[in-house]
C-alpha cells in the first residue's frame, strides 16, 4: 500500500513539474512576443518634454549635444538611458481599459504623475502618461493614443522634473590637460618639463628648504580644477561674496573661473566664462581650490624630511 502511495506521489510531482514548465514557457514566450509599449525610433528623438508635480522640464539635442533650455549642457548619458528604456518597454497585457480605471491609476490628460512627450523635429513621435505605482520599480502607464493601462517596468523617479537632475555635472571640466593655474593676485602654478613651478620657484621635491612645493597639495589642486564637478544650479537669490578668481590654461586655451561664498547658507557657487550660468559646487571642493600660496608649499619639517629621503636614496 505504501508503495502505491509513493508511486502516486511521484506521478503527481511529475505532473506538477510539467505544468510549471508549460506555464514558464507560455509566460516567457508571451513576454518575448509582447508588443512594444511605445513605437518610435530612438535615434530620431531630438527633444524630450516632461511635466509633473506642477513643473515642466525640456531637453533638446543640437549640434553640440543635449542641452537644457538656454543652452546649458544636459546629461547626455542619462537622457540616452531613459530613451533606451522607453523604447524597449513591453506591454504583454493591460491591467485595465475603462475610463474610470484610467482616472484611478492617474494616467489621464488631467490626472497624472508624469506627462512625457518625445519629439523628432516638430513631430511628436511618442506620448505617454505615468501614474500610480503597483510595486517596486513599476508604474501604471498609458500611451496617449490608446485606452489600455499597463503596469510597466519603469519608475517616475527616472523622469524627474527638476533641472538639477538633468544638468551635466561635468560641464566645467577642463578641456584636456591643465598646464597652468593662476589665482588672481595670489599665485601662479605652471607646468614645465621638470614639473610644476610656483611662480619662479623650482619644483624641488627633495629640497631642504621651506619654499619647496608640496607635490600632494599641488596635484590635489590641479585635479580639482581639471575635474571640476558641480552639484546643480546655484540659487538665484543667494547673497554671494567672491572668494577667488582663477585663470586656467588647458588644451583649449585660457578660461576664467570665479568662486563665490554664501555666508548665510555656508555654500559655494562658481561661474565660468566658457559656460553661461552660475552653479553650485560642494564645499569641500571649493575649500580645496581656494588656497593661499603657503598652502602649496612644504612646511619646514616636511621639506627637511623630503630632503633626507632623497639623500638616503
Descriptive key words:
313 residues; seven-stranded antiparallel β-sheet; single chain; 27% helix; alpha+beta; 28% strand
DSSP strand tally: 15
Main sheet specs = 8 strands, antiparallel
Low-confidence stretches: 18-31, 200-210
Helix and strand run: HEEEHHEEEEHEEEHEEEEEHH
The percent of residues in helical segments reads 25-40%
Shape summary: elongated
Q: How many structural domains in the coordinates?
A: 2
Protein structure class: alpha+beta
Oligomer: single chain
Q: Record the strand order, biggest sheet.
A: 10-9-8-12-13-14-15-11
Radius of gyration: 30 Å
* Distance between the ends: 89 Å
Average pLDDT metric = 87
DSSP strand content: 25-35%
Provide a count of the helices: 7
Protein architecture, described:
The chain is an alpha+beta fold. The chain folds into two domains: 42-166, no CATH class; 180-312, no CATH class. Helices cover 27% and strands 28% of the residues. The chain is built from seven helices and 15 strands. It has helices at 2-33, 76-87, 99-104, 163-166, 215-226, 283-289, 300-312; strands at residues 47-52, 55-62, 65-68, 114-120, 123-130, 139-143, 150-152, 180-183, 187-192, 195-198, 232-233, 240-250, 253-262, 267-272, 278-281. Strands 10-9-8-12-13-14-15-11 form an eight-stranded antiparallel beta sheet. The longest helix is centred in the first third of the chain and has 32 residues, at 2-33. Residues 18-31 and 200-210 have low confidence and may be disordered.
Would you spell out the secondary-structure blueprint of this structure?
Layout: H1 2-33, E1 47-52, E2 55-62, E3 65-68, H2 76-87, H3 99-104, E4 114-120, E5 123-130, E6 139-143, E7 150-152, H4 163-166, E8 180-183, E9 187-192, E10 195-198, H5 215-226, E11 232-233, E12 240-250, E13 253-262, E14 267-272, E15 278-281, H6 283-289, H7 300-312
Antiparallel strand pairs: 1-2, 1-4, 2-3, 4-5, 5-6, 6-7, 8-9, 8-12, 9-10, 11-15, 12-13, 13-14, 14-15
